[in-house]
Write a structure and sequence with these properties.
The chain is mainly α and 651 residues long. Helix content is 52%, strand content 0%. It contains 23 helices and no strands. Helix 8 runs antiparallel to helix 9. The longest helix has 27 residues. The radius of gyration is 27 Å and the shape is globular.
Amino acid sequence: MPSDCVFLEAPMTKQRLQATQQIHLTAKTDRSDIRIDTPTSSSGHWIRSDSTPTPGFLGETSYSATLDSSGLYTSAEIYDEVDMQFDPHDIEIGVDILKYLPDQQTSENFLELYISHTSGLIGIPWVIMRQILASIFSTYGHLMKSPREESDLEEISKRIIRAGYGAGTDAQDANGWAASLSGTNLRWDTLGLLYVAFAYACLPHPDHSNTDYALIDKRNVVKDRSIYVRELKTCVESCIKLSRNSIRPFLCNLLLKNMLLETSMEGDNKLSAWRLNHDLVAVATATGLHCYQGEPSVAVRSEMQKRLSGCVFRFDKELAMLTGRPPALGRRYYTCPTPLDLDDDVLVAGGEILQEEIAALDERGWNKKGATFPSTLCRFVVLAAMLLDEIMELFLGSLSDFRMDRVNELRTRTIETFAPIPHLISATKDSLRISAQDPTPLRPVLLWRPLLSRMEYLRIHFLLECLSVERGLESKKRQLEISREMVDLTLFPWLERGRGFTITKIYDLDSTLIVYGIPAVGIICTELLKQTRLNHTPSSCITPDIKLPTAEIVQNLSHMIAFLEWIAPDAGNYKLCQHIAKVIKRVLEQVFQPPTLITDEHQSNKQAEQSTIIGGFEPSLWTAGVNGLGMGLDDLEWLNTVDWIVDPFMM
């Protein structure tokens, strides 16, 4: 379970940044080119800081807005100096965190394994992340020799706590930013990101043997991997707790990763995940990430901050869409600029190289090379989240405000929005197979990016088609076509595993099933049941408006059952996957064992007998709707007839 929520006594962050001097960066991107100054003060007492807590972002309706705009008042005036005393309990928590820090070689192995499998949406370039890790051992290595002494870990804990209260730096270049996060400037929120990487590197999944766990140093090798992951997760939560008195935008990065790790371990449909998401949004708005008050010029730090802001907005929509509940942060209150489509190496290089790449972007900010950078993916998911936010308004808002012309406008805008990146939204099974068989070694993420992007693009159209069918009474043909492709692509990585397509726990296959596969399966199952009923009705005048390819559908549904049952018990959404598999099995049973044909003259005599569930489903599933062609309920509503709490669906 997650640790205590982060409660803010008052929004705490820095004031709006003033324009800073232009910073010139070196064009080199090798690790050695980023120099991190690490002063080695060994003083154990508190070093007074000139910084004081500020109330954070205050908008135009805040209590101080009128005074502040007149220059009569600054919000920082009401805040006292920081309490510059060490809290013994905080020091103890820090010691517990440091006890779980692997040795240097294992830490480097874990970070590289995480880098090789993740999408890159970490909010910090890999070259800087590697340098941060190296600086920990170069700065504190002499205090972490095995066996580690309690007194040495206490000294490290004090130094990190002290660094957390420092004024920090507004440096936008790679060298200055890396230095502000590393060595003696290391803070708990930065260290927590490394623990997240270690946890993801250790997460087990069905295709990995236990020998992979030998990466862990001898102090932890005897532990079960899942136990070690939970210990690392506890360390992440402790890092968040120790950062509570010095809220900065970078803390949002750790809160975001902690929430995602929580969904991986406990599932998306859990109170713990929802609470962590709202904590994240609360801190993000308290730091002003939703409206970005940072450096106006393009630099590595400012661009990474925009990416972080975008990811917070995107994952809020992801959880809202999954549960069908209103999001915590709507697009009307989100004004942060979309990050530019620039390679991380270019951002780190800066200078003329950066300016040349900026000039080479198209008018919307996309690169013209057809390349897929982490920034490309971030731009894509943020723009998709904007569209999903509008779509959710149509689903969850007042019916009196619904208009079909808005659905049609969203459909057109979706196509126009992603027209500049056809390489990212047009993946097919054939193109993915060709990429997987390329003799050039590819990171697994390079295959997953186009697959997940295509499914996200399809999901937007899928939801719009659901609105068109349910409220606009349009044909289901397009809806079924999209549903079939979504099921096909959801199954693809599982069916292709071991044939060039690598499956990793990083991508949470259980979440992929729930987010993309199951909604499409719901449409297909409903239509298949209706088609089965029509094939066994005595009335020859009733014919299906759309004929599904039964053999293909049954095969894919069978594969879907196998895929759902293949999900390991340690997956966060394991139970939900098992329940959905049972539902699909019931559907196939009805397809191959349809109900007894009842003639019209006996229909009235059988009405009372049909009050019980037929084959595990409500009778309305077999009741014709308008003109005998409906199911008596909306296509997505059939899932609501399933009792998820008691047998036979809850084991």
